[in-house]
Design goal:
Number of strands: 3
Helix content: 40-55%
Strand content: 15-25%
Distance between the termini: 23 Å
Largest sheet: 3 strands, antiparallel
Number of helices: 4
Order of helices and strands: HHHEEEH
Strand order of the largest sheet: 1-2-3
Length: 120
């Protein structure tokens, strides 16, 4: 959910192009073939972005699943942001993957940087 809030108004809409960037979209006239090519290009571009996102997510998940070296611990942290507060979770596992420690802490902030500081 945080990504969607962070990326709000990131992609240019017709209104944003004209109001914020001064681009008049009504002046562009495309024939049927150009519209089909444009839509196909857009669909392919979105498909590539989606595949790249999935690949990055998969690599991140594999990294999280990797066990630490013998005799060490691995810490995983996450933050869930709400409207007026955040929850910080920390999990520690040993080299065998056995849970050693887990904790959740409520932080009275809705600013991500402040919630991240609660981890330290």
């Amino acid at each position: 959910m945080l990504l969607w809030r962070t990326a709000a108004d990131l992609l240019p809409s017709k209104e944003m192009l004209s109001s914020q960037w001064g681009i008049k979209t009504d002046s562009y006239q495309l024939d049927v073939m150009q519209k089909e090519q444009f839509l196909l290009f857009g669909a392919l571009a979105l498909d590539l972005v989606w595949k790249a996102r999935n690949q990055a997510f998969k690599q991140c998940a594999q990294e999280m699943e990797r066990k630490p070296r013998h005799g060490t611990l691995k810490l995983n942290c996450d933050i869930a942001m709400g409207d007026n507060s955040a929850y910080v979770a920390v999990v520690a596992r040993d080299w065998r993957g056995v849970l050693v420690f887990a904790n959740v802490k409520k932080v009275d902030t809705n600013i991500l940087a402040q919630a991240e500081e609660a981890i330290h």
